[in-house]
Specification:
heterodimer, A: Rossmann fold, seven-stranded mixed β-sheet, B: 280 residues, five-stranded parallel β-sheet, 7 strands, 40% helix
Chain lengths: 320, 280
């Protein structure tokens, strides 16, 4: 009665490279796509676009506020600007610029943010932003997307060019397993049910999706049937996917490489409390800055690794 | 347009400004009055634009961005007097559900406004971005921006200034409303800008200076600025103005930056400003 899907791992790559490939591809397809970068072209994997389309690439220098304002201005006349820098400098540093010139003004800017979360690693807490999803999802007009692997980041990058309106696209630095099919059809706001289960729903985004698949596979060995949902779009949230699953499993775990305050888990909790209250356990960073270390060490120390998802699932089931 | 006719329009714009802010006991009359002549000159004499068929992209039209959004009263008045929307709508300024928000915004789709402003320092970046798009689109119309002098204390202005010069954004004319006053007092006392023209020159800009209350001087300066378009340098006009220009008790002080006149003060102001085009 329990189904555990085997996931074919198609290799390992960083999600930022998915962004770089997607940007190049969409640049070939759509001449209105332009790219801006604040002195992190290599880190953001934007070199291929820069080399192919130098007349549509704008090096902003270390001046992120100006980059965001220029991107907003470039939309007037029909361009589709993609800005690239680290997630910290894409959000907190320029929140007011995004708020006024992009979100409130409803401009067609794609804010593409790499090196999000703890998995940035050794650079430490100054660069490990864990609040960006919260900041961005609070802005009216803003769409927030956190893809799970290389293929999905590439697909999302291309999909947001076809969507009219401000978007925050968050991805990261480390190499992680690729499990989304290269020809998958990415739909903004439509969750992917990766594994079907009946005992607990695990809803994750970004790097925690693979961790949740691993957790579900371990839980299966213990006789626990976990449903795993890749909630790649935090806003607008696929409420139907959440409610359908929790109606079946009666409890939920949310998992994200982000502060518990203000993240994916908060959004899920809102849906549940309004429609279908159910026990919820949170896997995320608990009101703390990060620190230097390897990505693996940090995920363990800050409680966002596979064993944390397993433990959270067991706690959620017990609270039913 | 003749200078005399421009002056007649500017007088009506000033009446609109004081009536708008007085009606809601809020808003920013000082800087608005100071820029009435400039914006009248821009919209009625200098810019290539289509008030009757406003669209966001503005292809083939000159674009204007108000970076110091708090002087929205003068902009709204000039936009409506130029034909972007009915002048009666000025009576809704700052009122609930109005398109004429306290600071300009696009979300209620007021014709003529292409970007929200109010939080200072952002409009030069926006103007540079729009100018870059015009270049990519091979659209040889121009981008104009207006900034307060106090606003130049914001760091983002100088990020944009550096970018525009380094990248030869030469289809942009920025203007500084150099009235020397901001909310807390004189700019020199709050945070001095030093030698403003030299600062812009050092950043690689072509710098012109003009008297923002002399239509002939503005006409000459705009002609000079336009002759410098395409010269691989961005252009800035440092425009001397008087905050509160046209209403004697509002001049020579920073006190009317963000304070609206009461009924008695309004009557005094209106006595000093000729009604030339009919009040809204």
């Amino acid at each position: 009665m329990m189904e555990t899907m085997e996931f074919e791992v198609l290799g390992k790559k960083d999600t930022r490279s998915g962004f770089g490939e997607g940007l190049l591809e969409i640049g070939k397809q759509n001449k209105d796509v332009v790219a801006l970068c604040a002195d992190l072209t290599g880190s953001l994997k934007m070199n291929a676009f820069q080399n192919e389309f130098p007349e549509r690439f704008f090096q902003a220098g270390i001046a992120e506020a100006n980059m965001m304002g220029m991107a907003a201005g470039m939309t007037i006349g029909g361009k589709i600007p993609f800005t690239g820098t680290f997630a910290n400098f894409s959000t907190g540093r320029v929140y007011d610029q995004i708020r006024q010139s992009i979100a409130y003004s409803n401009k067609n800017v794609k804010i593409c943010a790499s090196h999000a979360g703890l998995t940035l690693g050794e650079d430490g807490a100054t660069h490990q932003i864990l609040e960006d999803i919260g900041m961005m999802k609070m802005l009216p007009n803003m769409t927030v997307i956190v893809p799970a692997d290389f293929n999905q980041t590439k697909q999302a990058t291309m999909a947001i060019a076809a969507y009219e309106g401000p978007v925050y696209l968050r991805f990261g630095r480390p190499s992680v397993p690729i499990f989304v099919k290269p020809d998958a059809n990415f739909q903004i706001g439509k969750a992917d049910v990766l594994m079907e289960g009946s005992d607990v729903t695990i809803i994750a985004c970004g790097h925690l999706v693979w961790k949740s698949i691993e957790a579900a596979q371990e839980l299966a060995k213990k006789g626990i049937s976990a449903e795993v949902i890749n909630m790649h779009t935090i806003k607008p949230l696929d409420e139907q996917a959440v409610l359908q699953s929790v109606a079946k499993t009666k409890c939920v775990v949310t998992a994200e490489e982000h502060m518990i305050n203000g993240g994916l888990g908060d959004s899920i909790a809102q849906v549940l409390t309004r429609n279908h209250p159910a026990p919820q356990e949170y896997v995320g960073v608990n009101d703390s800055f990060g620190e230097s270390g390897t990505p693996a060490e940090l995920m363990t120390k800050y409680g966002i690794d596979t064993p944390d998802v397993i433990a959270a699932a067991e706690r959620a089931i017990q609270r039913k | 347009m003749e200078n005399q006719e421009l002056a007649r329009i500017a007088s009506q714009v000033r009446r609109d400004i004081v009536r708008m802010v007085s009606a809601v006991s809020s808003g920013h009359p000082g800087g608005s009055l100071g820029c009435a002549d400039f914006l009248t000159m821009l919209y009625f004499d200098q810019m290539k634009h289509n008030p009757e068929s406003f669209n966001m992209d503005g292809a083939g039209e000159d674009l204007f961005f108000l970076s110091n959004g708090h002087i929205s009263p003068v902009w709204y008045s000039v936009l409506s007097r130029a034909g972007y929307f009915p002048t009666e709508e000025l009576g809704t300024f700052r009122k609930i559900s109005s398109r004429l928000q306290g600071h300009p915004s696009t979300d209620k789709k007021v014709p003529g406004v292409r970007m929200a402003s109010g939080s200072l320092g952002q409009g030069l970046s926006v103007g540079v971005g729009a100018a870059l798009t015009k270049k990519m689109n091979q659209d040889d119309t121009l981008v104009y921006t207006l900034h307060g002098d106090g606003e130049l204390q914001e760091g983002q202005i100088w990020e944009a200034a550096m970018y525009a010069a380094a990248n030869k954004v030469d289809n942009l004319i920025a203007t500084i409303d150099y009235n020397g006053r901001q909310i807390d007092g004189d700019v020199d006392d709050v945070l001095s800008l030093g030698d403003l023209s030299k600062k812009w020159q050092a950043f690689g800009w072509e710098v012109l200076e003009m008297d923002g209350h002399d239509f002939e001087d503005m006409r000459t300066t705009f002609a000079k600025a336009k002759s410098l378009i395409g010269n691989e340098k961005p252009i800035v006009i440092v425009m001397r103005t008087e905050m509160g220009q046209g209403v004697d008790y509002m001049m020579g002080t920073h006190k009317w930056h963000g304070v609206a006149p009461n009924d008695e003060q309004l009557a005094d102001a209106l006595n000093q400003l000729e009604e030339t085009l009919g009040d809204y």
